[in-house]
Write a structure and sequence with these properties.
alpha+beta, 7-stranded mixed β-sheet, 4-stranded antiparallel β-sheet, elongated
């Protein structure tokens, strides 16, 4: 087999030989010429390779030092260096002794860094979905899979913005521990638990080495909800559908009998009327609209007094959505989307919560948060009305900083034949029901008030 090589040839007439030819092949470097030239080229190549190797080692050492050496350790290293210089150059014995002590401390700290990767960690949570305000119990198992005994260390487990610390004792090869893991007082959201990180550090805090494992759990913290009365028996009683003014040839709500027209289905012929009049007569119906419900949640930061008031609004929206799903309603759960400041006022965006099942819906509410750059609730209602046809019921949930007049204006964005109920969340207010220009507005101070107000509306 012939191997094809790419070569670059240069010929010169000077030097010790009549023709000095340097050939570079694709498979390596081949030099032809005087002995001195060949030695010089080899030396340059060796120095280049050595320089690259030294640079790579220095870069790795710098990265390792930045991750491992703590500020106290850096101070000890500086003291050792200064002490050695002062002791050797100026003959200061005290400085030399201090340098030796500093070096001993550094050398003593190094063995505590070993063994960070010899652990096998098993992190397990009792539940992956909980309600806000409740705790989660789990376990963490740590086993020494290495061939040597590991020194004491620590295991850090990130939980959202916090960290749970677990002390790891001395573990012989093949031995392990199992500690309970308690995560209390969780707020609504999607909380990442993990990855578990081994922390190896010396007692003086000079050096620290970390190794993160791959086990990460997403914990869905659902909003708190309450059981609401069925929407077919409360303020809204159109679960089976409400008839409209549109006349159709086939539906459930009978309207009248008219004379047959070409194209009508023979199944709609009313034979008794046909026999009486002598002309072919057919049934006519009012179109029945399938009950569709919308839950619009305001999420602009300036529409709420504080974060707790927003959590109350999310709980109210989740309770209404959960009731609609259990009543087998078609429901749209809508909130404002994030709009960049540079295009605010020129761009409209909404986000929807998946209401295919209670679990999916509550997972979606876990991800909702306040936004500084979003549309006011009135614009959200406009987009919700434009994107949802056959809408019959709408709940608009807002904070205490939204005036009642704005709630009423938001309700006008929906079709005239749709029933709109406003829910105003104010933790400092007493629960009450009021009518604002023909629109029902419920004021709730806690999520449990919503059930009572809906029941009161059913009885009135």
């Amino acid at each position: 087999m012939t191997r094809t090589e790419s070569r670059l040839t240069r010929t010169s007439t000077g030097g010790d030989s009549a023709g000095v030819t340097a050939t570079l092949a694709a498979t390596g470097t081949q030099v032809s010429g005087s002995r001195r030239d060949r030695a010089l080229v080899r030396m340059v190549v060796a120095l280049t390779r050595a320089g690259r190797a030294v640079a790579a080692v220095l870069a790795r050492s710098a990265r390792w030092s930045a991750r491992t050496v703590r500020p106290a350790g850096a101070l000890v290293v500086v003291a050792a260096t200064a002490g050695l210089l002062g002791g050797v150059v100026f003959g200061w014995v005290e400085w030399l002794v201090a340098a030796v002590i500093a070096l001993v401390l550094v050398v003593t700290a190094v063995p505590f860094l070993f063994g960070a990767r010899s652990y096998a960690v098993d992190l397990a949570l009792g539940h992956d979905r909980v309600v806000a305000g409740s705790a989660v119990a789990g376990t963490i198992g740590i086993r020494n899979d290495g061939p040597r005994t590991t020194l004491p260390g620590r295991m850090d487990i990130p939980v959202g913005d916090g960290v749970v610390e677990i002390d790891v004792p001395v573990l012989r090869p093949g031995h392990g521990i199992a500690d309970p893991l308690e995560i209390p007082d969780l707020r609504r959201g999607i909380v990442s638990v993990g990855p578990a990180t081994t922390v190896r550090a010396d007692p003086l805090g000079l050096m620290r080495r970390e190794h993160a494992f791959d086990d990460v759990h997403d914990l869905y913290v659902h909003p708190r909800t309450v059981v609401l009365p069925s929407t077919s028996a409360g303020l809204i009683r159109d679960l089976e559908g409400a008839p409209t003014r549109r006349l159709v040839d086939a539906d459930m709500s009978f309207h009248a009998i008219r004379e047959y027209a070409p194209g009508d289905s023979r199944r709609q012929v009313h034979w008794k009327s046909t026999a009486k009049t002598g002309r072919l007569m057919v049934r006519q119906y009012e179109e029945t609209r399938r009950s569709r419900m919308a839950v619009v949640l305001a999420i602009a930061a300036d529409e709420y007094a504080d974060a707790d008031e927003f959590e109350l609004a999310v709980s109210c929206a989740a309770s209404l959505g959960l009731r609609a799903v259990r009543d087998a309603r078609e429901v749209d759960i809508v909130a404002g989307g994030e709009v960049p400041r540079v295009v605010r006022g020129r761009l409209r965006a909404i986000q929807r919560v998946n209401a295919a099942s209670p679990r999916n819906m509550l997972d979606g509410f876990s991800a909702i948060d306040l936004l500084d750059t979003t549309m006011p609730v009135g614009e959200v209602c406009r987009l919700a009305a434009e994107s949802s046809d056959r809408l019959s019921v709408a709940f608009v949930i807002v904070g205490s900083r939204v005036p009642l007049s704005h709630v009423r204006q938001a309700a006008l964005r929906f079709p005239a034949d749709a029933t709109v109920v406003g829910v105003r969340c104010d933790e400092r207010a007493h629960p009450r029901m009021q009518s604002v220009n023909g629109m029902t507005v419920l004021t709730v101070g806690m999520v449990d008030d919503l059930s009572g107000l809906l029941l009161r509306g059913a009885s009135s």
